[in-house]
Amino acid sequence: MADSSIQAVVLDTSKPDRFVIRDVPSPLALANQAVVRVKAISLNRGEVRRSMTAPDGHRPGWDFAGIVEQPAADGSGPKAGSCVVGLLNTGSWSQLVAAPTLAIAPIADNVKFSQAATLPVAGLTALHSLYKGGLMLGKSVLITGATGGTGDFACQLAKLAGAKVVATIRSPDREAFVKSLGVDHVVIGDDPSPAANFGPYQLIIDSVGGPHFGKVLAMLGVGGTHVIFGTTGGAEPTINASKFYSTGGVTLYGLIIFHELQHESPSIGLKKLADLVSAGKLVPHIELETSWRNVAEVAKNLMDRKFAGKAVLTLD
After folding, report:
1. What is the DSSP track for 8-72?
2. Would you state the pLDDT for residue 228?
3. What is the pTM of this model?
4. How confident is the prediction for the chain on average, in pLDDT?
5. Contact, 24 vs 8, CB < 8 A?
6. What is the pLDDT of residues 230-252, one digit of tens each?
7. What is the predicted pLDDT for the residue at 311?
């Protein structure tokens, strides 16, 4: 590699902000890995939350987009100079990364690095959640927490698939934004009960949990599936078990994207999502874009819910 050392975000528990940028060794790629010069990264609450309990020296980061600097030695994956989006289990907040070619996908020239960086965790979670509903054409879908990064993508993808989409949000000031995603109905407030007027639902995509959970679970139709991937409203909800099983053929599915990607490589879904962005059919909404030098402040504001949607950091 041209660089013997690079800079990366490293966890330092002695610092108030925990996240610091330090010199680290340049990555050494395996035969099936490409070395990518990272241009943009996207922050997710999951990786920030994990860093709150991680040891000194932990290298956080999942989402990234950049340029292939050294292609994989085994000939797989994009060639040198290709613009790509990718996903790592850890360590993507770095100037250079060594990424398996099954975890990266090419992006078109008209897709910005900042746009591409929003796709891996949020976009793939939305995509795989929709997979659980099967063919979406004409089906009713309920999406809770629609102003989040995954909820945003889920609304857009469900409409592209031909579904009737109902979204729940907490604040009325985000109603216009959610309607711009093409949803059919928006339910506002802490109580999702009015969403029952537009059901029953063949698929529910839920990131809220808490008191929401039991109420929306009861809105499943026969054979429907409730996918939950987050619990921003609380982790210990109550449900009407009798209503759940007596509906008939309903499924409750807990989704963690890294588990799903054991069965389908990230490159497959990332290519689909990037192509939709290139075609103007899927629009990444970036709530905040700033330098990665501000990573500690942005991570704190993300966890404090100072903004909705995606935060993207660009690398200098």
Report:
1. EEEE-TTSTT-EEEEEEEPP---TTEEEEEEEEEEE-HHHHHHHTTPPTT-----EEEEEEEE--
2. 97
3. 0.95
4. 95
5. yes
6. 988 888 888 999 999 999 999 99
7. 95
Give the CATH superfamily of 133-254.
NAD(P)-binding Rossmann-like Domain (3.40.50.720)
Identical fold between 5-121+276-314 and 133-254: no
Helical ranges in the chain per DSSP H: 45-51, 113-117, 124-131, 149-160, 175-180, 210-217, 241-247, 257-260, 266-278, 295-303
How far is the C-alpha of 66 from the C-alpha of 112, rounded, in Å? 10
**For residue range 159-180, what is the model confidence (pLDDT) as tens digits?**
999 999 999 999 999 999 999 9
Angle among Cα 236, 237, 242 to the nearest 5 degrees reads 130
Say which CATH class 5-121+276-314 falls into.
alpha beta
Q: Which of the four pLDDT bands, split at 50, 70 and 90, describes residue 2?
A: very low
Residue ranges per structural domain of the chain? 5-121+276-314, 133-254
CB of 309 closer than 8 Å to CB of 181: no
Cβ proximity of 248 and 269 under 8 Å:
no
